[in-house]
Write a structure and sequence with these properties.
Oligomer: single chain
Distance between the termini: 34 Å
Number of strands: 10
Helix content: 40-55%
Order of helices and strands: EHEHEHEHHHEHEHHHHEEEE
Largest sheet: 6 strands, parallel
Low-confidence stretches: 250-256
Strand order of the largest sheet: 1-4-3-2-5-6
Radius of gyration: 23 Å
Length: 332
């Protein structure tokens, strides 16, 4: 399948629409993670629908000293990958097309959620991101827009904007795509030297360590719930040699653990990576409620996000995994 390259909104609007339109927004330098988004979009709209991939490196979401100028631009390869993955069109507007009057004076504010984690590390980033997403949603007029869960805070803010400002579009999140060694796919991975890439594996390894600690805690809680703390039950268990197992389950499930233990398990991996050559420099590690990206408490139940950001050399990387609290067996 060959994707049509479009440079202006007028060209995009002139296309005849038969079914639903799905949009996948990117900054280019497409990889298998983007291809997964495009294939998912094709499944959502079906053969009669239309999949549009946007390629636009948005200057508003790059702060001073960030990598706007060196951000990879590979439009020809992007158009080819988009087409082979199922896209009908690639909309690659110029900066003047998106911002015809220069930098916009009116912008979307990300609010309190946009000041946490990534927002604290990159002030103004999410205001710029939401502003361009809002503009591209208006320019492309989709029925559904797809975003990767690797950028979990971005996805949460887009969903919040769409809900709060009554955008008539469905927002779909697509799970993170990883390389065989666990590293989350990112356009910035190409900046890493072989040694830096080995260090960068600590991001996903830390998340997996936190996930494993979480799974163990949930299993112990489930075990504790299955073993009532009554004397009669304890005596019965003792008769068949299970009293120690029951006591261990209760003790560990009620001992210090929870979110703090999950963070500690992940932090241990990151601390070890900080001593490597080259070292990993941690920006943040957080276990948060995805509705507002505030830290979760010990009594939290439901979906949470374990998120990390760090630098290896000159490259800044982010990653996260979802965790489910309170329902053993649903942890991701």
């Amino acid at each position: 399948m060959t994707a049509t390259l479009l440079r202006t909104a007028a060209d995009l609007h002139a296309r005849v629409r038969a079914g639903r339109r799905a949009v996948v927004m990117t900054m280019g330098a497409l990889h298998e993670g983007h291809a997964t988004l495009i294939r998912t979009a094709r499944k959502i709209v079906g053969p009669e629908g239309e999949v549009v991939v946007t390629v636009f490196v948005n200057p508003l979401q790059f702060g001073a000293g960030e990598d706007l100028d060196r951000y990879p631009r590979t439009l020809d390869a992007d158009v080819e990958l988009a087409g082979t993955s199922g896209a009908d069109a690639v909309f690659a507007p110029s900066v003047d097309e998106v911002y015809p009057g220069g930098e916009p004076q009116v912008r979307i504010s990300a609010g309190p959620m946009g000041e946490r984690l990534e927002g604290a590390a990159r002030p103004g980033h999410f205001d710029g991101m939401l502003t361009v997403v809002a503009k591209l949603l208006h320019l492309t007029r989709p029925d559904v827009a797809l975003y990767g869960q690797k950028d979990a805070q971005q996805l949460a803010l887009i969903r919040r904007m769409v809900r709060d400002l009554n955008f008539g579009v469905e927002i779909a999140g697509v799970p993170t795509v990883r390389e065989e060694d666990g590293l989350a796919l990112s356009s910035r991975n190409r900046y890493l030297s072989p040694a830096e890439r080995r260090t960068a594996l600590a991001l996903s390894q830390a998340l997996f360590a936190g996930r494993d600690r979480h799974a163990a805690q949930e299993a112990l809680r489930a075990r504790a719930r299955e073993v009532p703390a009554s004397r009669a039950r304890a005596e019965a268990l003792s008769a068949i040699g299970e009293s120690r197992a029951a006591a261990d389950a209760h003790a560990v499930a009620t001992a210090a653990g929870g979110p703090a233990a999950i963070r500690a398990a992940a932090r241990l991996v990151l601390d070890e990576a900080a001593r490597l050559d080259p070292p990993l420099t941690l920006d943040y590690l957080a276990l948060v409620d995805p509705s507002d990206f505030t830290d979760i408490g010990d009594d939290f139940t439901g979906e949470a996000v374990l998120a990390v950001a760090a630098r290896v050399g000159a490259t800044r990387l982010i990653d996260n995994i979802p965790l489910t609290f309170g329902t053993f067996g649903d942890a991701s």
